[in-house]
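Human: Here is a favour to ask of a fellow structure person. Comparing notes only helps if you start from a blank page. Give me a protein, with the fold worked out from its sequence. Please set it down just below, with no commentary around it:

Assistant:
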Amino acid sequence: MIWIVLFFVAHWVLSCFFQSFFLHRYGAHRQFTMNKVWERIFYLGTFVSQGSSYLVPRSYAVMHREHHAFSDVEGDPHSPHVYPNLFKMMWATKTRYSGFVKGRLHAERRFEGWYPEWKWLDHFGDHWGVRIGWGALYTVFYLVFAPHWIFYLLLPVHFLMGPVHGSIVNWCGHKYGYRNFDAGDQSRNTLPFDFVTLGELFQNNHHRFGQSPNFAARWFEVDPTYYVIRVMEACGILRFERTQVMPNPA
């Protein structure tokens, strides 16, 4: 049982970290910079940690910028105030995301650019065979270590880890919690210590200060990912100085 628990927690935390750190704060907002070598390392880490639910950084960035520009009104690709049913919101998000990945949809020019791209890895990671392969690896691990069939109910979360995190953040972060600021939308801070999504549930703070790498704003709020970012800055892995400024659609 301990191996299943450790595997689930590790997959959850690593997938959530790379989504928050690389896809969101770096890819969508470019809140800090890093050299190409480190970018590729974290790109690969995102692919490995998300596995079967790998999210292409370009499509993630475009949709997230749309989310900020149209927060909680028509045009927001994943708001509970536009899609009052959670599963309809998830399906609408999936459909739009797939449209960007496959080239069936094209974003406004203001939402394009300033995101990392590794086209070979994106094509490979998005291939259905690769996604099934990751799912098979998760299943084999459970077949070997799960002490009871009830643990197999966790497998769908592994298969859809990235979308599960996104759904929690976009649903709960715009419906439940408290507000520190008037951000012009319905964003909320769901947890004062976000141990669930590593800082992503400070949606109200983030929507008010979209370019801040620290999603916590008050003394009692804890954004775990930000502390990792500060350690990386101290180690020279990334830097906050930006020689160019990404257009902010919000």
